[in-house]
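2.7 Reproducibility. Because tokenized structures are sensitive to small changes in the input, we list the exact sequence used for Protein FRG1, including any N-terminal residues retained from the expression construct. No trimming or masking was applied before prediction.
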Amino acid sequence: MSEPKVKSSRLTFKGEQPKKKRKREDGDQGRPGGSKRKEDDKDPETWVLPEQPNEIRGPTFIVHPSDPSPICVTYNSTSNRVVLSSLDKSRADDSEDTAAEPPSLLQRTPTDVSQVWVITRVAGSPTINLRTGTGEGKFLSCDAHGLVAADRDARGPQEEWTPVILPDGMVAFMNVYEKYLSVDEVAGGALSLRGDSEEVGFRERFWIKIQYKYQKEAHEEEKQKKDGISDPLRIDEVSTNKIYQTWGMGRSVVSDQDKKDLKRARKEGRLAEAMLDRRAKLKSDRFC
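Resulting structure tokens (single pass, no recycling of outputs):
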């Protein structure tokens, strides 16, 4: 009787393609360029720290080094609210061995889909959008009063964030009002997110992790730019191109057919205006 297969615990996302395993060739370590081949063999789903702002894309894990327990920015799809949850509590819920030494903060990885945010951006834009990895895919927003929520179906100026990588590798998020996302303590000692901090301090600093394949994708794009190869404007492969959505401070991305229709409409409109002007002139000349 065959043994039952163990189910993989790796997080998967809707639309994700299964990766094919490649056999490692003998002698790779001894060949020139062996280190590059070793890097290529790295698991694409490995969680890594971004080194440049343009690497921040795809599934993202956002944590804050709070004391006594680090917290994670999560989304509760039942209440449709952003929640700051203790990583130690989620670890205790998932593991029976609570006496074991907890891993360091930088070794932590998400254990639930609610802890993952999907970051999208328009190629070349410094701003990003944070979409929930669970539920219906809501965008993280901040209004002029600093209130942070995740209840928007489309993105606009209030859903734009600019990631700033600090010298120690941590990240601050600046909104459209040039204020920073921060952890705030409310009544009863509960923690919540706000977006009205003027400066970056301890409360405004987050550790974030991305998947290695998106970091590699960003490096390839930078290499193409240096080589003089420019790609047309595109949306990241992890983003969902929905009707009536806008990117880049409300700038619409339309298809080639839409552009042709708009051009024809403008031409017809100018023609109609010219005809009306001509009729008005003839009518005016008739009574002169």
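The CA atoms of residues 178 and 253 lie 25 Å apart.
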